[in-house]
Every structure is written in structure tokens, then in C-alpha cells.
Amino acid sequence: MCKKESEKIGKLFTLYKFRTMVVNADKILIKKLKSDKEFREKYLNYRKVENDERITKIGKILRKTSLDEFPQFINVLKGEMSLVGPRPYLNREKKDMGNSYHYIIKCKPGITGLWQVSGRSHTTFKERLKLDIEYYNNRGLWYDIKIIFKTVLSVFKKDGAM
Prior knowledge:
By secondary structure, the protein is mostly helical. It has one domain. Helix content is 46%, strand content 4%. The chain has 8 helices and 2 strands; from the N terminus they run H-H-H-H-E-H-H-E-H-H. It has helices spanning 25-35, 37-46, 57-64, 72-77, 94-97, 100-104, 125-138, 141-157; strands spanning 82-84, 110-112. A two-stranded parallel ribbon has the order 1-2. The two termini are 27 Å apart.
């Protein structure tokens, strides 16, 4: 569910997740963005790239099965996240979010959400923003329940996982 207007919004928190990437993955990303035009275009468009060399062998399995998300239940218990909502964005993505930022941060981030059941890794960053705005505009108990059921199906089918 989304936060009320009066609550503090846009608060940074530690997102718990199993490590799926090599150490110094951000440094490798910066180098790759500078040196590989094709990689840069894909990454800037999707924020993910298939066969990303930074992902470990175990990380590929964790991501494919969505088990890397399991520690986020700690974030839910701490009240930092919800079961359903927009996926948390990285602080460095704030500028790229444009006006969408002001709507999306009014919702607690969720372990699952409309983006995960609407294509996940196969949607562009802009499409993800649109889906998060759609969630913001249509949020409610029944909508959340529908997303949870779709999430369970997606996890079993391994839809959209990279």
C-alpha cells in the first residue's frame, strides 16, 4: 500500500538481498559503460543486460529463481518495504526517473509489483516507470492480491528473470 502524503517520502534504507554479483560490480559497470557502446545502449534502456558478466554462477541461479529477493522480508518486517509496491530504485536513478519520481516515492517499495508481473527484465526503464505510475493510480487491496497471485505464477514459470 502507498504511504500517506503526510509521511516522510523518499527515505533511503538498506535493501537486504543475497549477493549475486562479483565484488566491485559498480566499478566494472562504469568501465563497461565507457568502453562498450552496445552494452551501454542496452543498459541505459533496460538497466539490465542479458548474460551480464558481473553476475556470479550462484547469482544466476538465485536470480532465475527469485531467491535473491528473499532477505527483503526483513525490510518488510522493519516497515521499510511492503509486499506489493514499486520496486526500489537506486539513488543514482532518481534523475532518470524525471517527474515519475514524485509519484513513485509516495509508495513504499515492494518485494513484488506490477513491473514484476508485466515483463520484468524485458521492459525498458521508461516502461517500468509507467507501470509504477499505473500501480500508484490503481493501488488497493484487491489490486495487490491480484499482483501477488500473478507473482507466484511468474516465479514458478521463471518469467522475466535474468
